[in-house]
From TrEMBL:
GO terms for cellular component: extracellular space. Coiled coil: none annotated. The lineage of its organism: Bacteria, Pseudomonadati, Bacteroidota, Flavobacteriia, Flavobacteriales. Its cofactor is Zn(2+). It comes from Dokdonia pacifica. Keywords: Carboxypeptidase, Hydrolase, Metalloprotease, Protease, Zinc. This is Zinc carboxypeptidase. Belongs to the peptidase M14 family.
Length: 373
């Protein structure tokens, strides 16, 4: 872990920063990849933006990884290009060479380039691609399925990002990384492929836990045959959902990026290192809940008041727009930032923001008192 963290600090892809990552962000980086990377345009999005694969490695274990299936979930895309640096840097660690000799890795850096361009979860036809695995109504969904069938992977890594709302009710800790071995059927059976997914996740959890104490969790494993991970798992391919969450004060997700890079490296390593875990250990990993807001005002005359940021693309920058959370949502919430306003009544919130800085600017209390934050 320490070696990988130190390597990442020096060698991560510095051209990619922040939350707004799209096709133009990565085009030059794709063009500069050396010949050992096989870069192919495999298809087009709804709005005719190209979708690429990048294949590297000569090993027998084949892993398919795709990022930005949801266009506004970009942290894992940054981690993917950090991996590309890992596989070509002069400061290469022996593990990186071992990965390339043991595995063949096929990446789709941005599956939903239209959503990435508009910073939306959905594609240009307003379809959630992660709910289109059965209908395959969208060109991006059909392309992913075609690549899956053509590449015939031994493992699938489904790379996503999660909102700041996730944490753990029993500890009050935020969820920085979360994983899931998707179910293959309604009964949530421990199929052979799901068992192998659980073992890889257990290895990641054991590796990362000393550095992210009590900040790693599981997603709910309810089966949804429309979801891509559930579909691939049901098809017999071990599939893992990766979710990049919120590290304290890291709204650009640059610290989370480091840990996601290590999570992916660790997962890849476990596919060939013969370390097998009892899958029941997977169920010792806590499941996270929706129990966080971005700012929590404690003890106002109206009770606790929560603020959630809404991310909005403006002039190629992401603004964080503060909005009041519902009282029902706030009743059991923790806050990434907590402010005591004992005995005061919050009247309204002025929507004044600074691009790239997720701060409420002015809070109006008792109509006369203004708190600038």
């Amino acid at each position: 872990m320490e070696t990988l963290l130190n390597w990442h600090k020096k060698n991560h892809e510095k051209q990619l920063f922040g939350r707004y990552i799209h096709l133009e962000s990565i085009r030059e980086l794709l063009d500069k990849l050396p010949s050992e990377f096989e870069v192919k345009q495999r298809g087009l999005s709804v709005e005719k933006r190209p979708i690429h694969t990048v294949t590297i490695g000569t090993g027998k274990i084949k892993i398919l990884l795709w990022s930005q299936m949801h266009g506004n979930e970009s942290t894992t895309t940054k981690a993917v290009f950090d991996l590309f640096n890992a596989f070509q840097t002069t400061d290469q660690l022996p593990l990186f060479d071992t990965i390339l000799s043991s595995c063949t890795l096929c990446f789709i850096p941005i599956l939903n380039p239209d959503g990435a361009h508009g910073y939306t979860r959905i594609n240009a036809n307003n379809v959630d691609l992660n709910r289109d695995a059965q209908n395959k109504s969208q060109p991006e969904s059909r392309l992913l399925w075609d690549i899956y069938k053509d590449f015939a992977p031994d493992f699938c890594f489904n790379l996503h990002g999660q909102r700041t709302i996730y944490g753990f009710e029993d500890t009050g800790k935020p969820s920085i990384l979360s994983f899931l071995a998707p179910s293959a059927d309604e009964e949530r059976s421990i199929t052979l492929s799901r068992k192998r997914s659980m073992q890889v996740i257990t290895h990641m959890y054991n590796t990362l836990s000393p550095y992210l104490s009590k900040n790693i969790g599981l997603y709910d494993d309810g089966f949804n045959h429309n979801c891509t991970g559930d579909t691939f798992q049901a098809d017999g391919t071990p599939t893992i959902l990766f979710e990049a969450g919120h590290y304290p004060n890291d709204y650009d997700r640059e610290i989370t990026r480091q840990f996601m890079f290590i999570a992916i490296i660790t997962a890849i390593e476990n596919t060939f290192n013969n370390t097998v875990f009892d899958e029941t250990l997977y169920f010792n990993i806590p499941e996270h809940q929706k129990c966080y807001c971005d700012i929590l005002f404690k003890n106002s005359l109206d009770g606790d008041i929560g603020i959630l940021y809404v991310e909005k693309l403006t002039s190629d920058k992401i603004k964080f727009i503060p909005e009041f959370a519902s009282k029902e949502a706030t009743s059991s919430m923790f806050g990434h930032r907590v402010i005591d306003v004992s005995g005061l009544k919050i009247k309204k919130l002025l929507q004044e923001n600074v691009i790239g800085k997720p701060d409420i600017r002015h809070l109006i209390i008792d109509e006369q008192l203004t708190i600038t934050l």
